[in-house]
Amino acid sequence: MGSVQRQASSGSDSDPRLGVADDERKRKRMESNRESARRSRMRRQKQLEDLVGEMGRLQQANAQLVASINAAAQKYAEVESANNVLRAQTMELTDRLRSLNSVLEIVEVVSGLAIDIPEIPDPLMKPWEIPRPIHPIMASADMFEF
């Protein structure tokens, strides 16, 4: 760094103590500035270390969130696949029931007996009308953990 030298005033030539006092003040100011710069560098270094630590924690939290999202997406795909299987089974069983009902209608016509043939609800069109069990289905909290 460049230093700035002050021109000594005409009065300081006669008293050498004033130059010594100026030099002492200048030395103390430079020392104070050096100390201030050192503290500033230390503060910046600590801020940098804090930010690097926070970045590491955020990256770890982000990785955990990504893993959780991936697990949820996998679970969703499994449930959707199982749901598709159940839908296909429902359709197959509905077709079988229709066939059995048609057999019952033939038996009713041939035998002349009155047979109570229930109407078959369309489970895919009105799922709220599907007969449900009387007892509620119990679920545990751990079946929803990912």
Distance between the termini: 62 Å
Which outline best applies? rod-shaped
Q: Helix count, per DSSP?
A: 1
**What would you call the structural class?**
mainly alpha
The biggest beta sheet is recorded as: none
Q: What fraction of residues sit in β-strands?
A: under 5%
Characteristic terms for this protein:
mainly alpha, 1 helix, disordered N terminus
Task: Describe this structure as you would to a colleague.
The chain has one helix spanning 16-111. The chain has 146 residues and is an all-alpha fold. The two termini are 62 Å apart. The radius of gyration is 44 Å and the shape is rod-shaped. It has 1 helix and no strands. The chain is 66% helix and 0% strand. The longest helix has 96 residues, at 16-111.
SSE map:
Layout: H1 16-111
Give a quick summary of the entry:
By secondary structure, the chain is mainly alpha-helical.
